[in-house]
Design goal:
Blueprint lengths: L1 H8 L5 H76 L13 E5 L5 E5 L15 E2 L3
InterPro entries: bZIP, bZIP_Maf, bZIP_sf, NFE2-like, TF_DNA-bd_sf
Keywords: Activator, Coiled coil, DNA-binding, Nucleus, Transcription, Transcription regulation
Protein name: Segmentation protein cap'n'collar
């Protein structure tokens, strides 16, 4: 602004002329500032629109992945149920009677062994007494 005033002082201008020149300069600067502001705002809107698009795509991918996982979980549960029923059809007590899957449960120990435990004794196997477990020997 000082440089602008220095240049104006070189000319013999009336106060009205100086006021008009300053007004024109102020309007020009304001116009450029408004254009810059609109451009920044548009850039920000475009950036947010791109971010929204990416989020929607990510949401679709996650929804698809969730559906795939639900399907896989259902398949695994069905397979588990079939295996569980098959094992209980094959298991027999010492008298040759089948174990009831409603009274007994199969559990896997930390070392990977499968044991038959009464449903009333379903505690964490690591804490259960080894004598209360019946090892499954296929």
């Amino acid at each position: 602004m000082d440089e602008f005033n220095e240049r104006l002082s070189k000319y013999d201008l009336s106060e009205t002329q100086l006021s008009l020149i300053r007004d024109i300069r102020r309007r020009g600067k304001n116009k450029v500032a408004a254009q810059n502001c609109r451009k920044r705002k548009l850039d920000q809107i475009l950036s947010l629109a791109d971010e929204v698009k990416q989020m929607r795509e990510r949401k679709q991918r996650l929804l698809h992945e969730r559906q795939v996982l639900y399907t896989e979980r259902h398949r695994i549960r069905t397979k588990f149920s079939q295996l569980y029923k098959h094992i209980f059809q094959s298991l027999r007590d010492p008298e040759g009677n089948p174990y009831s899957q409603y009274e007994w449960s199969l559990q896997q120990t930390g070392d990977g062994s499968v044991v038959l435990v009464p449903r009333g004794n379903q505690t964490i196997l690591d804490q259960a007494e080894p004598a209360s477990r019946k090892p499954h020997n296929p």
